[in-house]
Amino acid sequence: MPELAPRTVEHSRSSVVRLTLPTDANFMGNVFGGAILAEIDRVAYITATRHSGLNVVTASFDRVDFERPVHVGQVLAFDAHLTFVGRSSMEVAIEVHAEALHGGPKYRVVRAWVTMVAVDPNGGPVPVRPLRLARKVEREEFEAGRQRMEERRRHRPGPVATAVPN
Question: Whole-structure pTM over 0.85, yes or no?
Answer without folding.
Answer: yes
